[in-house]
Specification:
The chain is α/β, with parallel strands linked by helices and 351 residues long. The chain has 15 helices and nine strands. Strands 2-1-3-4-5 form a five-stranded parallel sheet, with helices on both faces. It has a two-stranded antiparallel ribbon with strand order 6-8. It has a two-stranded antiparallel ribbon with strand order 7-9.
Length: 351
């Protein structure tokens, strides 16, 4: 199937990685309309359908690397779930129905079906709980690997490194900041909880609060990380103030000695294979990476989320990172890729 231009544009302009697609013949009744507003406080991008073919066509056209949560009725779920189970962009499926037992029975073979609910409050609570666990450790990693076996320059690897360096050094522009705010207001229109955060960001953000904003559960982390992952240069340009401020806060608080940090992550077997092949090469993660000095925290992080693995194609891993401040120093003796313990700067502790 070929995606139409309209389908591609609609599905690919999401500022965040996650979306919800809801299929139900009565998706726009009064009760469900109220639920849609609540669901948008969990995952902002929500699309609704009452036609299974249209629903499946749009799900298939989701941008590579983006992930979607599906809500389907029991009746229409029997049609679409077998086909949606195979799609990598489908992270989880939730069945909302009247007859819970009957729908549990037919849906058991499908590992992406995470819950069968017959009450809206139950459905919303399950999705909220699951999303809280998965939001930071099941996103697709954006990794560049420098192939040292090749005699040719790796343009993609070099471009990603230079782009961040350029953004950090660019002068700030109030007009660009206003453009970012307007873009965010349009993206989160109708999502009052997120619009409240946008207003707070507009009025109170400053360079010293950059890490607090980045580590907070808000549009800053979700949209900035998405921009870094897919190399959305326009969004990275608009977010360059935050990128620069986080970088400078890390630089000021740079660890003075070698440390060992840990990160728990859910990754695909394809990503794991790619990493195993990269032993002995330069690897670059194209985002800020949150870690812990405590391995058990990283292990608990993935243990809590392992049941959310969308299929047998995913595994949980622990990254053990040996970080040395003497590596990658520039001519001014500053670390070009600084790292810091940010407990006192983070919105949360232990990072």
């Amino acid at each position: 199937m070929t995606c139409s231009k309209t389908q591609s544009n609609t599905n690919n302009n999401n500022l965040e990685t996650y979306s919800i697609f809801w299929l139900d013949a009565e998706v726009n009744n009064e009760e469900n309309l109220a639920a849609q507003k609540t669901l948008r406080t969990i995952i902002n991008r929500l699309r609704v359908f009452d036609n299974p073919n249209e629903f499946m066509d749009h799900v298939r056209c989701i941008q590579k690397g983006d992930l979607t949560i599906l809500i389907v009725s029991g009746q229409l779920g029997r049609i679409v779930v077998p086909k949606m189970q195979e799609l990598v962009q489908v992270l989880a499926i939730y069945i909302y129905c009247y007859n819970k037992e009957a729908n549990i029975e037919w849906s058991q073979p499908y590992s992406k079906v995470k819950a069968v609910c017959n009450k809206l409050n139950e459905l919303i609570d399950v999705i909220r709980s699951d999303q809280k666990q998965r939001s930071r450790n099941e996103e697709v990693l954006s990794i560049d690997i420098l192939d040292r076996s090749s005699t040719e320059l790796d343009g993609e690897f070099l471009h990603s490194q230079l782009l961040i360096d350029v953004l950090i050094r660019m002068k700030l522009n109030e007009q660009d900041q206003n453009e970012l705010i307007e873009l965010l207001k349009n993206e989160y229109m109708g999502n009052n909880s997120e619009l409240k955060l946008v207003k707070e960001f507009q009025e109170n953000y400053n360079s010293k609060s950059s890490i607090s904003w980045y580590t907070r559960e808000s549009f800053v982390y979700r949209s900035l990380n998405k921009a870094l992952r897919v190399r959305n240069i326009d969004m990275m340009f608009l977010f360059r103030t935050v990128i620069r401020d986080v970088y400078e806060q890390l630089l000021v608080n740079q660890c003075e000695k070698r440390i060992t940090a840990y990160r728990g992550q859910i990754i695909s077997k394809h990503e794991l294979k790619k990493l195993k092949k990269s032993v002995g090469t330069l690897v670059s993660f194209n985002s800020f990476l949150s870690t812990s000095l405590n391995r058990k925290i990283a292990e608990n992080f993935v243990k809590q989320s392992v049941y959310l693995c969308s299929s047998s194609d995913h595994v949980s891993v622990i990254f053990q990172i040996e970080a040395d401040p003497l590596v990658l120093r520039d001519s001014n003796e500053n670390n070009r890729r600084p790292f810091a313990q940010i407990d006192e700067l983070s919105y949360f502790g232990e990072e």
